[in-house]
Amino acid sequence: MSDSERSDSPSDEIPPVSRRRFNATVAAGAVYTALSSPADAGIPAQASAQAGQQGEELCDLSAVELAARLARKEVSAREVMRAHLARIERIYPRVNAIVTVVADQALANAARADEAIARNGPTGVLHGLPVAHKDLVDTAGIRTTQGSPFYRDYVPTRDALIVTRIREAGAITVGKTNTPEFGAGSQTFNTVFGATRNPYDLTKTCGGSSGGAAVAVATGMLPLADGTDVGGSLRNPPAFCNVVGLRPAPGRVPNESTSWSTFSVAGPIGRSVADVALFLSAMAGADRRYPLWLDDSPARFRAPLGRDFKGVRVAWWRGLGGIPFEPEIRRVVDSNRKVFEDLGCIVEEAEPEFAGVDTAFPLLRFVGNHAKFAPLIQQRPDWVKDTIKYEVGQAERASGGDVSRALARQAQMFSQSREFFERYAYFILPVTQVAPFDVTTPYPAEIAGTAMTSYIDWMRSCWYVTMMSNPAISVPGGFTANGLPVGLQIVGRHRDEWSVLQLAHAFEQATHHGRRRPPLLG
User: Fold this and answer.
1) Residues whose CB falls within 8 Å of the CB of residue 216, separated by 6 or more in sequence, listed in order
2) What is the largest CA-CA distance in the chain?
3) Do 362 and 454 meet the contact criterion of CB atoms below 8 Å apart?
4) 63/238 Cα distance (integer angstroms)
5) Model's pTM, two decimal places?
6) Where are the beta strands (DSSP E) in 217-256?
7) Measuring CA to CA, how many Å separate 94 from each of 198, 200, 228?
8) Pairing between strand 244-247 and 265-270?
C-alpha cells in the first residue's frame, strides 16, 4: 500500500504522546513551580486537590466569564493557563486534537499577562485567555505542518494576520490544532499526526477541517480556537462536537489571501454564541492589503445579543433540491422548528434555487487549489493523498468554458440569495447531511442509499451555503438517538453576522443543547 493510499484511509490508532509532540506539556510541572508565587510552594495535598478542582472549573467556564474574572483579578492568567495545560495533558491522548503544544512559552506569556494586569496596563478583550491556532496558519517559532509531510518540520518566521490580531487582543497561544492534509476534506486525519476523535464517541470522526479546534473547545482544553472554512470547516466540526462555529462573510476576517474568491474565510469556534461573538470582535477588522476587507467596527460584536424576533420571517429548508439526508438528521433538525415559532418568528418552507451549484462549486474549488497542489504532486506524489490528486486531475480536465459557466453560476447564486433575503431575514437548514461516522472512514460513500461521487459530495448542505457568500453559523441543535451531536445552520443576510449571532443566541438560550458536555469529561 502506498503512502498516498494510507493517507486516504485514516488509521484506527492515535499516535502515542511522544516527547517531540508533547514534551512541553510533560515537562511543564517544573515550569509551574518556577512561575508560581512563593506561597504556592509545598502545597498540602488537600489544598492541591482543591486547586485541581478549581482548575477543572476554570476549564469549563465560558470565554466571556473567564475573561471577566481575569479582568476583575479574581483569577490569574497563570492559574488559567495551568488549568488548561493540565486538561490538555489529561484529555489529549484520547482525542489527538492539539498536536503541537508550547507550554513553556504559554506560561511565560501568562506571567506577563498577570504583570500587565497588576500594573493596570492596557489589556485586550481576550487578555489572558488560552487559544490554539489551526495547523494551517503560520505561527512564528511554532511548527506549522498543514498536516502534510512537506511541512512536517516547518517553523515559520512570522505570524499570520489572524494570529497577530488574536495576540494583540491579549490571548495566549498554547499550540496548534489538528487538520486534514492541507485542510482538504471534512474528516480530520493526516500522516503527520493521525486522526482526531469525536469526544462524544471516540470511535467517530470529529469532522473537519477545523476538527482539532472543535474538539479542543468541546473538551475544555481551550475556551476558544480559530478555524477556516471553504466548504464547511467552521460548521461541520462544531456540529459534530456540539459547539458553535461561525463562517463570517468574506472579508470580515482578512485571511491574507489576495484572491477575489469568496470561498475561503477564517473565523471563531467557541462553546457558546456569546463566546464566538467575543472572539469575532478580536479577529475582525479592515486591512487594506487584502481585496475583500470590510471596514465595519469589530466592537459591535461585543454588544448584548438579546433582541425580539416577533414577526421576523424565517425560511425553513425544504430539502436543498433533493440531496440525501440521514433520517436522524432530518428528525433532529425539524424538531427545532417550533422553537423559532415560539420565539415569535414567522416560519415558512422556502429556500434559494441551488440547481447547478453541485457542479459549479467543486470545479471552482478544484481550479482554485490547482496552483498549490499540482507542483507538490510533481515533486513527491507519494506525499499527497489521493483526494487531492483527484482535485488536481479534475481541474486539469476542465475547459475554459467549464470554468466560465461555473463562475457565471456563482455570480447568479449571489444575486439569487440577495433577492431571497429581501423576503426572509434567515434561512435555516442542517449543517450536515449525516451524523458523525466511523473515524476510520475517509468520507461517506453513500447517504440514505445515494452514492457520493467525491470526497466532498457529502457536505453539500455546507458548500451550497458557501456559494451564497452569506454568513452562516453552526449552533448545537440536539442529539441523535445514539447520543451524537447534530448542528443547526442559520444563514443570514449578506455581511450581517450580528443578526445571525442574535438569532443563534436566542435559539441557544431557548434549547440549551450546547450544555451537554462530552462523556469523556466525567
Assistant:
1) 97, 98, 132, 177, 222, 225
2) 74
3) yes
4) 16
5) 0.93
6) 224-229, 244-247
7) 10, 11, 24
8) antiparallel
Return the residue matching grid coordinates 473565523.
267
Instruction: Name the active-site residue from 134, 176, 204, 385.
Output: 134
Distance CA 166, CA 146 (A): 20
Q: Name the grid cell of 434.
A: 449525516
Would you write out the chain's pLDDT as a tens digit for each of its 522 residues?
A: 333 334 477 865 544 444 344 444 333 332 222 223 322 323 234 434 455 678 899 999 999 999 999 999 999 999 999 999 999 999 999 999 999 999 999 999 999 999 999 999 889 999 999 999 999 999 999 999 999 999 999 999 999 999 999 999 999 999 999 999 999 999 999 999 999 999 999 999 999 999 999 999 999 999 999 999 999 999 999 999 999 999 999 999 988 777 899 999 999 999 999 999 999 999 999 998 889 999 999 999 999 999 999 999 999 999 999 999 999 999 999 999 999 999 999 999 999 999 999 999 999 999 999 999 999 999 999 999 999 999 999 999 999 999 999 999 999 999 999 999 999 999 999 999 999 999 999 999 999 999 999 999 999 999 999 999 999 999 999 999 999 999 999 999 999 999 999 999 999 999 999 999 999 998
C-alpha 490: how far from its chain's center? 16
Question: What nine digits make up the cell of 279?
Answer: 472572539
- Residue 204 known to be catalytic: no
Question: What is the C-alpha to C-alpha distance for residues 416 and 353, in angstroms, rounded to an integer?
Answer: 7
Distance CA 272, CA 231 (A): 22
Cα separation of the two ends of the chain:
40
Amino acid in position 471: P
Q: Which of 4, 7, 148, 209 is catalytic?
A: 209
DSSP for 240-286, written as a single string: HHT-EEEEPPTTSS--S-----SS-EEEEEESSHHHHHHHHHHH---
What is the side-by-side order of every strand in the sheet holding 472-479?
98-101, 172-177, 130-134, 224-229, 265-270, 244-247, 472-479, 485-492, 426-430, 313-316, 346-349
The DSSP annotation for 113-127 comes to HHHHHHTT----TTT
For residues 161 and 280, give the distance between their C-alpha atoms in angstroms, rounded to a whole number: 14
Query: Is-catalytic flag, 209?
Result: yes
| CA–CA dist 268, 253 (Å, integer) | 10
Cis check for the bond before 261: say yes or no (omega within 30 of 0).
no
Contact status, residue 245 vs residue 232, Cβ threshold 8 Å = no
| DSSP-derived secondary structure for 400-443 | HHHHHHHHHHHHHHHHHHHHHHHH-SEEEEES-SS---BTT-SS
Tell me how far apart the alpha carbons of residues 328 and 21 are, in angstroms, rounded to a whole number: 38
Q: Is 36 a catalytic residue?
A: no
CA–CA separation, 4 vs 117, rounded Å? 50
Place of cell 506524489: 381
